[in-house]
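Table S2 (continued). Query chain:
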Amino acid sequence: MLNFFKSFRTDEAGAVTVDWVVLTAAVVGLAIAAYTTIETNSDALITAAGQAVADENDF
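Corresponding output:
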């Protein structure tokens, strides 16, 4: 049993998996942040453009 714990502690195969999980979580987080920013700014742009068109039609 002691040999199992020694080999488990020195085995680095799991470290690569943890690295990929952390990297994937970071990419997903950045994608969500980018989507939120783009959605918010595009909604504001569409609203401003619609208001400009409506103002032009008032004349």
